[in-house]
Amino acid sequence: MENLQLGDMVLTGKADYEPVYAFGHQEKDVLASFxxxxxxxxxxxxVTPEHLVxxxxxxxxxxxxxxxxxxxxxxxxxxxxxxxxKVKTITKKGxxxxxxxxxxxxxxxxxASTYISLQDxxxxxxxxxxxxxxxxxxxxHDFVHMVLSPFRMLCSGVSxxxxxxxxxxxxxLYVSKGLDFAKWADKQNLVVQGLLFLLVATICMACFAVExxxxxxxxxxxxxVAAVIWYKQNGIWKEKQV
Length: 242
Hints:
- About 35% of the residues lie in helices and about 30% in strands.
- It is of the alpha+beta class.
- It has one domain (about 10-240): Beta Complex (Endonuclease - Pi-scei, Chain A, domain 1), CATH 2.170.16.10.
- Helix 2 (about 150-155) crosses helix 4 (about 190-240).
- The radius of gyration is 20 Å and the shape is globular.
């Protein structure tokens, strides 16, 4: 992971290669806690406790610290014969999170999400929960993937220099501020959480729709052209009316 650079092609859960468009986290000297997931006769998978990993029997990836012996990890070839033999917690130096356009990556023979859970272990390991344990109906993976749509378009279609991790915390500003906002929102009451969820989802779903139609490289240009056309059809017309 420490040798990966922006633009490197990595194997993903789609069984093809995608470029690393940014790093959600990149700090080589930081000490961090990892969940070490052992598989029979294979190199163990080492990820942070809140990182999301695909398991057999789950429609969405779950927190790494919710995985236990006997679970089956989804392999990079789509198989589910990677039986977990034991799970340990270790401390190692170096924290890396390469981001791909699909939000998945193949690591040590299994498929992992490139995202983390937005809530603590006590909350749902798979879905975003509101206060009181109310299920939002959207997984952590899908929600983060949607919220990162503007970030993907910025990094891929504008400039990757705008998405580099800062020296302060090893995360791009969009990611660090987004996590701060998610932690703050998680402490609010149900009504506030619902309103914030709808607001964020509406904005990011619109961006995601544009990204899905034009791709992250061309989506910013498409949005700029649409804005210019809208202004010409509405702004100038309103000026004439005045």
